Amino acid sequence: MEIGSARIGRCSKEHQKIYQSWFSYVDSDGDGRLTANDASKFFTMSNLSRQDLKQVWAIADMKRQGFLGFNEFVAAMQLVSLAQAGHNLTSDILKSEVDFENLQPPAMEGLDALLPKKKRSSGAEQNGNQMQLAANWFSSSSKSAKVSSAPVTSIVDGLKKLYLKKLKPLETTYKFNDFVSPSLINSDFDAKPMVMLLGQYSTGKTTFIKHLLGSGYPGSHIGPEPTTDRFVVVMNGPDERSVPGNTVAVQADMPFNGLTTFGTAFLSKFECSQMPHPLLEHISFVDTPGVLSGEKQRTQRSYDFTGVISWFAAKCDLILLLFDPHKLDISDEFKRVIESLRGHDDKIRVVLNKADQVDTQQLMRVYGALMWSLGKVLNTPEVNRVYIGSFNDKPINEASAGPLGLELFEREQDDLLNDLKDIPKKACDRRINEFVKRARAAKIHAYIMSHLKNEMPSMMGKAKAQQKLIDNLADEFAKVQREHHLPAGDFPNVEQFKDKLNGYSIDKFERMKPKMIQSVDDMLAYDIPQLLKNFRNPYD
Asked: Is 290 exposed, middle or buried (0-12, 13-18, 19+ CB in 10 A)?
């Protein structure tokens, strides 16, 4: 499977040198990113209409990052060249039979006269930059913990700054990182989109990943018995290798630092499988152990399985629940797993895999039984989308599926693959969505903690008062909800919150700090909308 277009953005070495010199000219600060202000002045040299340039930017910046890297810049230049040749710029042009690799660079009016001046001035700046770099090597690193004063050149950069300046102080003050989610680090913002696969053993989770990649990943095992006994993150890497969980969790450039809270018992059942693959340059996959059913459920896992699933669910962009026609029962553990996905309903997709193992009549009954089972667990009036197909490398069993089933499976597979292809395009929007959800959760957490603190006596009977508050936590949640006019659905799970609260002294919590709450409110009401406005399409 390919993400986006396989051709656009590719060019000959000769053209690549031309585009590199143009990119260096436009990239005034040398950070490898062209913001809207930089690019818009350069693009006007093409003498295209504003409407055409709007389409060029929209297609080149499909991920809505708010900037163009070198590859996106090359794609934009190729689109400009096509527009100058009279082509109509739509998203369908990416699928057309255009020879992008040999497409001539566009005509940019006045650019040739500007490039020599840029080269002369850059030579004089280079010596100064080298001296400054040498000075930085020996400078004190004590300022590294402060919020960087570097200009924001993307939406993600802006979110990092807002988090450090406005949201993290609130989280730290009220121990949000202990109760709900560990503090975010740079790699959490920069991570590629992730897709998690969940299901009972032998429903085809590992085979599904193999089907998309065209080969197995390092360390993968496929069989009818529970073969995947650990969480495996399949990521892009320079060579094929498996990295142990304890090593992965402490690497600063990977977004898995928060998994250390689940202890060594879990980390020994976690690993990262790396391999070079064009698909993995855009998406990472999380392969999970099969959810237990029947007698196997009586064997306790050595770590908090549902807690780990919940942690990954918050990080992932898409969650695939896999079933097969012979494993439709939802076990107690599977029910707990699905319940742990609460709050991430928009990410869930249901896949009825191996559907060619039953005939058309049986498939109708299986589909109905699956919807009935899911309806009892998901507790939502809406019907979840179920993709039906057989996601493996074998040809579809036409004897069982029949001609109608064959066409159905192909359409369903195309729909699911299109859903996966859209993930990188929506990654930035998803990042903003998750950031806003976290900010609201942190606010509610602060309200709860400060309320519990206010309910504690100042002198005597603190232990008794704390136990009473914990026992009546649902009522205390209701008081906070009424006092601050908050939606009930945004509050955390009462029982889980009780368990966490038992390990703390409520008396040591902080009282309400209105300035911190106001700072987060301002961030949600003004800063984030302004950030999105700054990095929207410059031709809107």
From this structure: buried
